[in-house]
Design goal:
Helices cover 48% and strands 14% of the residues. The protein is of the alpha+beta class. Strands 1, 2, 3, 4 and 5 form a five-stranded antiparallel β-sheet that branches. The radius of gyration is 62 Å and the shape is rod-shaped. The protein starts with 13 loop residues before the first strand and ends in a 29-residue tail after the last helix.
Length: 235
């Protein structure tokens, strides 16, 4: 806030003010001369504005910047000011007194400056909007490039995985083939060994056994002597 200087206005003097009005209950602003870009001009104390303004601004000096609280009775009362101000609403105003009894020349100069400021603000907004659009487009292009790069890397990874799986598969098939050959040779060897053992056993069973003879008589050991009875012969 800021103090003013010089004499205070009298009833009927022309004031030039910048202001913004908000609801005391919620803080929501419903009107602002700064947002429009043009200061407000009125005759103070003549009922051109709400009662609170006519009363409080008669004590304001040029250059003063302050906040003033206006009750609903001194503002828009029970009717309110639809749709911006509800009934029985207390208000808070941020007010800056720019001039008292401004001349026409001064008013023209001020108005020209306000127009130039509006044009500058519009150009700034347009520039900011263009910058935001360019940033958004650049960000979109960057995301698209990143997505394409990620997709390319994924394809390369998939191809690499596929080649690796193919090599692993061929390696597995080669090793399994070698194992199969080794097992086959082992089975054939076992089969040959079994055949050899079978032939040896068969020959052994087929060969007759030699009978052992008695060392004293020269007769086979399984022979036995039998005593024959003597028969008397006739003379």
């Amino acid at each position: 806030m800021q103090d003013g200087s010089g004499p205070v206005p009298k009833v009927g003097d022309k004031l030039v003010v910048h202001y913004s009005g908000c609801l005391a209950s919620t803080g929501r602003c419903f009107d602002s001369s700064r947002a429009r870009g043009h200061a407000m001009t009125f005759m103070v104390g003549t009922g051109r504005v709400i009662k609170g303004w006519d009363t409080l601004l008669l004590e304001a000096q040029k250059g003063v910047h302050f906040k003033m609280f206006v009750t609903a009775q001194d503002a828009y009362g029970a009717k309110g000011s639809p749709p911006s101000v509800p009934p029985n609403a207390d208000l808070v105003f941020d007010v800056e007194v720019l001039a008292i009894n401004e001349t026409l020349v001064q008013e023209r100069i001020r108005y020209t400056r306000e127009l130039e400021e509006l044009k500058r603000l519009a150009a700034d907004e347009e520039f900011l909007a263009g910058a935001k659009a360019a940033a958004a487009a650049s960000s979109k292009a960057e995301r698209k490039a990143q997505a394409a790069s990620s997709s390319s890397k994924k394809r390369k990874h998939d191809n690499s995985s596929s080649c690796s799986e193919s090599v692993d598969s061929s390696s597995d098939s080669g090793s399994s083939g070698a194992r199969a050959k080794k097992e086959k040779k082992k089975r054939e060897k076992d089969k040959k060994d079994r055949k050899k053992e079978s032939k040896k056993k068969h020959k052994k069973e087929k060969k007759p056994k030699k009978e052992k003879k008695n060392t004293t008589t020269g007769e086979p050991r399984h022979w036995t002597k039998v005593a024959l009875p003597c028969v008397a012969r006739g003379v």
